[in-house]
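Problem 12. The chain below contains 155 residues. Write out its predicted structure in token notation.
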Amino acid sequence: MVDIGGFGPDDETPLFVISVAAELAGMHAQTLRQYDRLGLVSPSRTRGGGRRYSPRDVSQLREVQRLSQEEGVSLAGIVRIMELENEVAALRARIEELTGELVRSRQASMARVFAVGSGGDVVAVRPGERPRHTRSQALVLWESFPTRLPRQTRP
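Solution.
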């Protein structure tokens, strides 16, 4: 698809009426209606109730047809496969989100270096940097999470 100035359609934009989507997927329009009733591919709806299919919907229709005709999977099986694929996609997105949080957390904790001044005051400094205007050369590294829990001994 052509993207003009950032306003072009994407894979989620509902573009096609049922007859066009059926032709693009190589199916009959009645088959698309049946798949919609079964929840296999649920297109967007207009205010008047008409179905509008996105390029992603057409791709899903083709995959349903492939699984049914080439692989011999029942429609109930296809529903389950698609549910699991959606769940996997959601879990991958969550993993990516958590990985980003972990990276940001580690970066933030690595930046937390504190020094104790000669007067006993605590000053934040960059890693490898010494505090200014103090006589003490001591640096303290503060960790937000312990790397190992202490081993407990029984009496």
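Discussion. Strands lie at 44-45, 51-52, 113-116, 122-125, 139-141. Students who got a different answer should revisit the alignment rule from Section 12.3.
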